[in-house]
Amino acid sequence: MSKDASMSAAKIEAPLVPVQLTNEQMNSIGIKTGTVEYKLLSDEIRATGTVDVDERLQSSVQVRFSGYIRKVFANATYQYVRKGDPLFTIYSPDLVATQEEYLLARRNQTVLKGSSIDGVATGASSLTTAAEQRLRQWDIPNSEIVKLQETGKAVTELTINSPASGYILERVALPNMYVEPATKLYTLADFSRVWVNAQVFQNDVGRLKRGDSSSITVDAYPGRTFQGRVEEVLPQVDMTTRTVKVRLSVNNPAVTLKPGMFVNVDLKSALGRQLVVPTSAVFQTGLRQVVFVDHGSGSIEPKDVSLGARVGDDFIILKGLSAHQQIVTSANFLLDSESQLQAAASSYTPPAPGAGQQTPNPSAAPQAVVAIDFTTDPNPAHKGSNVFHVKLTGANGQRVAGAQVAVTFFMAAMPAMGMGAMNTTTHLIQTSPGLYDGTGVLESGGTWQVTVIVKQNGQTIGTKQLRVNAEGGM
Q1: N or C: which end of the chain has fewer CB within 10 A?
Q2: Alpha helices by DSSP H, 169-237
Q3: What region holds the CusB-like barrel-sandwich hybrid domain (predicted)?
Q4: CA 435, CA 427: separation in Å to the nearest integer?
């Protein structure tokens, strides 16, 4: 068979038909049922993140004139200052000169306001206004200008106060330092509200939107939960971690959360009322998703479904089922095999009279019945690597070649021993006509439930279940 033909055959899946089981069969394979139902869902995404400063609550301190810093009051990084607290004093020759110009202009305005010469009084008033505007452009507080008017004396050392409340993140101001308008002397930040930057995997980002709620926990405060909301999903993916930064806004009045803290984040996105089934009810074949509907009295029908997102232990159903239908929630792997076997049996056409005189080619068509012999090497199997052997014999006694053989080992969970369920599948390779070998690893000793599935030309032609006791301990 050519490579293209092999690929095309691999994409063709065997048909599924309704299955009719007896009570004994249903009990032996452990069928359990559930109900298709509507639920109010809230999608939860877990992530980690870090606390950061809310950049909108940052402010910087600069002066709009050059000068020399004399005294520094706020002299430590992370010192807390309130709005209006003194930060430092500054002596500026330019500021002193401008104050003197302003005082002189005011005196001239007073002297010349009664002048009979056209334009003299107006000109004096304009000079006063211009000098005052220059002081205001330098951000001199109105209180200082009023004081200047009242005292008539220029201030040689101007006190610069904090423009906002917050912690000092950066401090450049030092005594006797010469500064210019471009010099950033302090950076302040208010921590009463902070950002949490959560690292969310790119596959989950599409389920988030602005305003979604979040719960934040920190190892430093066991038992405490902080509430936040999604403010922005940033438009860039980290190429190393394949995560996207999601910015959360969190109220932090007591400054409990400190910038740089590592946090755990649970993001919640409301999905509304959705039709769902348990995840255990969905059998995924690779090309399609199937749910088995229980019609009662052992009648079970496979239904193709279209799935939405997985939310917790449920899948959202977009198409294929309706509310209140009874569905199978366990043993779906075995039901799939049984359905394919019954499909193969129902499509079998008896040979025409006389056709049996010719010897059939066992690999020319799917076999309706096949005997499966399964062994392990070593025998008994043990914990670790093992070789599995399967021999296939058709109803005519000839070996069956060209089949696909999968061997699945399953061990149920043992909570008392702290062990979860274990499941491993090995696909065997034909080594000679009718003989198939493969190597697999058993993670534990003990009793394993083994299922051998044999397919040929996309159809299941045989299954076998048995138990294997592996040596080697848990």
Answers
A1: N
A2: 202-205
A3: 59-188
A4: 13
> Which residues are paired to 294 by β-bridges?
300
Distance CA(402)–CA(383), nearest Å, equals 30
Instruction: Name the DSSP class of 284.
Output: E
Cβ atoms 288, 12 nearer than 8 A = no
Q: What pLDDT was estimated at residue 3?
A: 45
pTM for the whole structure: 0.55
DSSP state of 192: S
Residue 277, both tokens = 């089934």
User: Would strands 67-72 and 37-53 be described as parallel, antiparallel, or unpaired?
Assistant: unpaired
Run of H or E residues at 188? strand 186-189
Assigned fold of 363-470: Immunoglobulin-like (2.60.40)
> Hey, which residues does 100 pair with through a beta bridge?
none
Q: Could you tell me the residue ranges of all domains in the chain? A: 12-54+201-346, 68-189, 363-470
User: Would you say 444 and 438 are in contact if contact means Cβ atoms under 8 Å apart?
Assistant: no
As a whole number, mean pLDDT of residues 136-165 equals: 91
pLDDT class for 473, splitting at 50, 70, 90? confident
Q: How many CA atoms lie within 13 A of 79 on its CB side?
A: 15
The DSSP bridge partners found for residue 43 are 269
Nearest C-alpha neighbor of 246 from the set 194, 191, 208, 193: 208
Q: Which of 85-94, 143-152, 224-233, 258-267 is least confident?
A: 143-152
Contact yes or no for 305/319 (Cβ under 8 A): yes
Instruction: Identify residue 389 by its one-letter amino acid code.
Output: H
CATH code given to domain 12-54+201-346? 2.40.30.170
CB 172 within 8 A of CB 183: yes
Omega of the bond leading into 380 within 30 degrees of 0 (cis): yes
